[in-house]
Amino acid sequence: MRRPIIAGNWKMNLMPGQAVDLVEGLWADISGYDAVEVVVCPPCIDLPAVSECMRSGDIRIGLGAQSMHWEESGAFTGEVSPTMLLGLGVTHVIIGHSERRQLFGETDQGVNRKVKSALAHGLVPIMCVGETLKQREAGETEGTVTGQVNCGLFELGPQEISTVVLAYEPIWAIGTGKAATAQDAQAVIGVIRSVLGEQFGEQAAGSVRIQYGGSVKPDNISEIMAMPDIDGALVGGASLKADVFTRLVRFS
Ligand code: PGA
To answer: Residue 166: CB within 6 Å of ligand 1?
Structure first.
């Protein structure tokens, strides 16, 4: 059985004090609810405050970063390293979000290095893949997504990939209010799982959790989560309010 994982990607929003308020508000609503693994991914600058509030308040929610470099230290202006994240109690890291790929030039090769580094440091990578509207309209969705999965997981073994969380996020659905239909999301995620099966064997492929992301809201989460291959959601806008995110976590 794959335990669903719902992660909030706060992107470049919320100051440290606001981030702490949100985590405390969320925990007040979901503590004791274990059906779903919950992760929040605040901006880096908020991580120390959120980490401290989780520690002192015994708040058992996963703490994720939104990106990282693959090296532990060095001349990489503006970056944070896996060891720095570990030092703050971070457990998960989003890798290869489409905004990183499109706006900051991240490549499949870089994504692969980061996934390997995250795994080597005991962080759970949430590796994002997804097609543009143009690619979808040209019938290139499967090819694009399959290529991103294969490159991102290049040279990993079955054992390692069972730890990886994948997030299928069609770019045209992110922040637009136009989510993919549950059936369309299932179709692509089903393809991803069969690609994993060919590469890593059925057992490993069956254990990888694959999220859907892109305009997930309280009114579409149940339909999405009812799909056989969808094991959670990566949520942007709807993760910024405790009451709304709580409704996602308690979808069932
Ligand atoms: P959204 O963002 O939920 O606001 O569409 C999803 C994401 O970018 O991870």
So the answer is: no
Q: What total of structural domains would you count in the chain?
A: 1
Ramachandran class of 78: left when φ > 0, alpha when ψ lies in -120 to 50, beta otherwise = left
Q: Mind listing the pLDDT tens digit for each residue in 218-236?
A: 999 999 999 999 999 999 9
CA of 102 to the centre of ligand 1 (A): 14
DSSP 43: -
- Atom number, ligand 1, closest to the C-alpha of residue 175: 5
Nearest atom (ligand 1) to Cα of 9? 9
Which residues, listed in sequence order, are joined to residue 94 by a DSSP beta bridge?
A: 126
Kindly state the average pLDDT of the residues 191-196. 98
**Residue 44's CATH number:** 3.20.20.70
Domain assignment of residue 234, given as a range? 5-249
